[in-house]
Every structure is written in C-alpha cells, then in structure tokens.
Amino acid sequence: MAAMQAGVVEILLDATPPDQIGLTDSSENNALHYAAQKNNARVVKLLLNRKVDLAYKRNRDLQSPLHVAAYYGSTDAMVELLKQCPDVAEMVDSNGRNAFHVAITSGKVDALKRLLKHVRPEEIVNRVDRAGNTPLHLAASLSRIQSALLLLKDRRVNPCVLNREGQSARSLIEKRAATEEMDTYEMYLWKTLKKHEASRCKKEQLPPIATYQSLRSRRAGHDEYYELSVGTYTLVATLIATVSFAATFTMPGGYSQTDGTALHGHKAAFKIFVISNTVAMCSSIVVVFCFIWAWRDPVKFKLDQLMWGHRLTILACLAMVVSLMTAVYITVAPTARWPAYVVIAIGVSTPAVVFLILGKEALYVPM
Question: Which part of the chain is the PGG domain (predicted)?
C-alpha cells in the first residue's frame, strides 16, 4: 500500500509545477505535513527530493512536519526527515516547543527513542519552552514515567535545569503530590530524579527535597490491591509447582515393575510431557521466589519484577495445558482416540478463548 501511494505521489509530482508543490490547506499544512502524519517515509523522501524547504515550512500552529511526525508517533517519517534535514530538530512551535516536547506531551515513547538516537546536539535535548520547561520537566509534570526514565538514561539530559517558576523536574512531582495522590510509578520516578540530582547537581541551587515519608503518605490507595495481587500470583504459582511436582512421580502410563522406568518413555508425546511439566514447575518456582522478596522494595518490584512474574505465570499455565494434553493422549488415545482428540482440541482452544475475552490485556499486569 505504501509503495502504491508513493507511486501515485510520484506521478502527481511529475505533473505538478514546482511552484505549486508547496501549496497548503486552510490550516497551512503542506503535503509533507500529511506524509509525516501518515508515517509514509517513501513519500517524505520523494517530497524532500523535489522541494527540500518543505521540511522547514510551518502550519498555523507553527508546527513543522517533524512536530507533526512526533505528535503522531510517525517514527519512519521522523528518521527520513532528520536524515535529510537534521537541523529541522531545532525548530519550535507556537509554545516554544521542539519535537522532543511534542513527543512527550503526546505520549509517543517510540518517537522519543528515535529523536534521542538521531538528534545529537545537547542544547536541543534540553531546550526550554515558553514556560521554561525542558522535555524532562514535561515528562515529570505529565507523569510520562517511561519517557522520563528514557530521558534520564541519556547523559545529555540535564536534570538540574529550573523552569521559570524555579522548579526542577523532581520538585514538579513533589508540587503535584501536595494536591494529588502519587502512584508507585511516580514514586519510582521521584527517587530516580533525586538520585540523578544528587550525583549531577551538587553545585546547583535546587528546590528543597521532600522527605520520602511525606510523599509516601500521599500515595494512592493501591497497597491493598497490590497485596492481593502478590498473594494471588504466589498462590497460583505454588499450586502449579505442587501439581507439576506430583505429576513427576505419577507418570502417564506408570512405571515398569522391573527397572522402574516409564513405560511410555520412548514415545514423543511422553517426551513433550516431561519437558512441558518441567517448564511449568521451574517457571512457577521462579515466580514464588521472586514474590517472596517483593516486600523489600515494592516500588522497584512493581516496575521490574512484577511483569516478569506475570509472564512466567502465563508460561507455567500454558505448559500445564500442554502437559494435560500429552498425558491424556498417552493414556487414553491407545484405547479411545476421539476423547483424547477432544481434550487436545479443548486444550488448544483455551489460550485462544482467554485472548478472545481479554485481548492484549492478558499479556500485561492488571494494575
């Protein structure tokens, strides 16, 4: 489809006089603005090859095509724009914001990643808007946690900058915490910002730091739900470990009375059973041990380990389903094939039903 669109655009460009390629609509968007919005890198390249100054044209809100690409998360278009016109990253809109600001306000993390990779000047990364806010200020004030942490991983980003109100990114979180409840992710970002300030802003005059206890007292009431989640995951993982461990000593088809080996050990289905049962048991054991240490640092646990615990629990459940299907096939199929096939069909459809009901949410922690 993109190739077809590019072909049509090329034909139109050949038939359009050069002075009309830059025509705009009622909002003063030109063709490159729309190509950037649709993330069509080939069309972006075609337009720039014909009229490179389109990259520097602004619409009614003084947004360049790069601003539009950042707003819509059009990463391929952004790369092409920056490849041919790297200085377009310096352009700002009516709010004094560059593409970094726009990517953060629109919540486009992938766009921010591309900008950090392809835009090198430090002053652009730390550019302040009309309110004196750097991209890091905006990420902190808008609770764009992932974007803020991504910025802090880049050594060019300066956490010591103060906006016009004399606030740093860290103090903006504290200011908002005075009127709003903080969640675990905001607490983690606050601790990270405080750590970066301590190491990089020793000679800077920054706003006073709030105490951990004062912020903790304002945290949102998710602790009860958090405790319930940890307890549920631990219980499920423990049950899976118990069942899979028991299945190890009650092998499908039983053991030989002479040498103690499994009677069906030579069958492919039995080998699949052993592997899937081992995966289920070991995955659940890892989950149990990770969740035992969950209380040492709940903030870090929620961000780093809870997702892995969730994924390993899904893996253990899927492995248990495979174990069930292979065990039934080994013991039932030799005498009655259709019940074995029915069980396999039900087992295969179980994950599909879960995803049909929950969609992609099944892959993420319900927090």
Answer: 227-330
Give every CB contact of residue 298 below 8 A, 6+ residues apart in sequence. Answer: 184, 226
The pLDDT of 191-196, averaged and rounded, is: 91
Closest CA to 103 of 157, 139, 140: 139
Strand partners, 182: 219
Rama region for 183: left / alpha / beta (φ>0; ψ in -120 to 50; rest): beta
In a domain, 230, yes or no: yes
Contacts of range 13-17, beta carbons closer than 8 Å, 24 or more positions apart: 13/46, 13/47, 13/50
pLDDT at residue 259 in the model: 78
Rounded to two decimals, what is the model's pTM? 0.65
Contact 351, 321 (CB under 8 A): yes
- Say whether 44 sits in a helix, a strand or coil: helix
Residue-range definition of the domain harbouring residue 307: 221-361
> What is the tens place of the pLDDT at every residue in 35-60?
999 999 999 998 998 899 999 999 99
**CATH number reported for the structural domain that contains residue 79 in this entry:** 1.25.40.20
Q: Do 20 and 35 form a contact (C-beta atoms < 8 A)?
A: no
Averaged pLDDT, 318-342 = 91
Greatest mean pLDDT among 20-29, 119-128, 259-268: 119-128
Dihedral over Cα of 115, 117, 118, 121: its sign? positive
**244 and 202 in one domain?**
no
Residue 174's CB is within 10 A of a number of other CB atoms, namely 23
Question: 16 and 104: one domain?
Answer: yes
Between 49-53, 100-104, 223-227, the lowest mean confidence (pLDDT) is in 223-227
CATH code, domain with 268: 1.20.140
Number of domains in the chain: 3
Same domain, 142 and 233: no
Type of residue numbered 262: A
**C-alpha 347: how far from chain center:** 30
Q: Is the pLDDT of residue 366 over 80?
A: no
In a domain, 367, yes or no: no
